[in-house]
Amino acid sequence: MKTGKEIVITTPDYPPNRLGGLSTFSVTLVNALECSGINVKLMIWNKVHELKNLKVANKVNVHSWPIMFMTPEECKRSVNFVHAAELLPYSKNMIKRLFKKLNHKRYLRKLEMAKKNIFISQFALDLACKYGYKLNVTRDLVFHNRINLAGAEYIKKTITDNELVLCCFARDVPHKNIVGTIKFAEDLAQMTNKKVTLYCGQTIHTSQKVDVISKNYSDQERESIYKRSHLNLIFSLDHVKKGNIEGFGLTPLEAAKYGVPSLGLGNGGLPESIHHGITGLILRDLSEREVRKAWHLLSVHYQEYSMAAYDHVMENHSHHDYAQLITEVSE
User: Fold this and answer.
1) How far apart are CA 4 and CA 113, in angstroms?
2) Residue 191 CB-half CA count within 13 A
3) DSSP class per residue in 39-63
4) Span 163-316: which CATH code?
5) pLDDT tier for residue 17 given thresholds of 50, 70 and 90
């Protein structure tokens, strides 16, 4: 039932044009608001200037960079989700890097004019402050990512079986560290003497020691693999100077929906999405010593991590939470 309230969502990332974390984020947000009865108008933009004359009362920007091109009055009406990578004054692309450096302070000053800024992790907010953003607790809040929990179920597994199934749904870009992920799988196979199967996003990398099954999975295929997996891997690297960083990470939440613990490195906002020693493990590096230590902890505590991951995501990360948040901050 429609509530009569109307929200305009702006995003450059939405299926089928683009796939990835921000697209998933956008779909989840729109779905949550529509389920609550809010009338959502979606504007998918390719170039920021397309938003220049969008004069509406309740506008939520999934990507915060458009605020750069708004008038002060438009800024004051905007609600922005702020992710970590867009806060960086760096990029691998030389033209983008120059643009970011020249306009970085202006971008932060414009963000400070906003009605509300929603940072997806404490890491993202701290990063903004590091670059000179002026914190205002009446304007800025941290609201960790939420996911659609439809179909969630706790699937009990054991890691004493002869096969370990691992998943890593990351695109084959350097900071996603597919190479490190495959190395981890190989080391795990060697020290456990188990067959290891790794399902991962599209990659050119292969292995002679473990089964690497790589493709662009559909949503249904991805959910099916989570259900079969023992561990979710997200060993993202710190590529701040290249313009890439993991602001929070959706896959630890998606995997936890089926009781799958996650392993990651302590970069970006990952320690906020993987609670070390509770819903999974944060490794210092991917050395053999760290992998061995992680396996020992998993051997002893796997069932605890599995149940805690499921309980945590069910209690704290429902996408329905977005409706109340957006209603409150857009008043």
Assistant:
1) 28
2) 17
3) EEEEEE-SSGGGGTT---SSEEESS
4) 3.40.50.2000
5) low
User: And the tokens for 236?
Assistant: 């993202």
| Amino acid letter, 178 | I
Task: Parse the chain into domains and list their residue ranges.
Answer: 6-148+318-329, 163-316
Fold of 6-148+318-329: Rossmann fold (3.40.50)
User: Strands (DSSP E) along the chain, which ranges?
Assistant: 6-11, 39-44, 59-61, 78-82, 116-119, 140-142, 163-168, 195-200, 211-214, 231-234, 262-265, 280-283
Distances (CA, A) of 72 to 77, 111, 125: 9, 10, 22
Which two structure tokens, joined as six digits, stand for 23?
Answer: 């697209």
* Cβ atoms of residues 180 and 244 within 8 Å: no
Give the chain's length. 331
| Mean pLDDT rounded to a whole number for the chain | 92
pLDDT tens column, 253-311: 999 999 999 999 999 999 999 999 999 999 999 999 999 999 999 999 999 999 999 99
Percent of the chain with pLDDT over 70: 96
pLDDT in the model for residue 1 = 45
Q: What integer pLDDT is reported at residue 68 of this predicted model?
A: 86
| Cα gap 263→252, rounded to integer Å | 8
The two tokens of residue 98 are: 């120059």
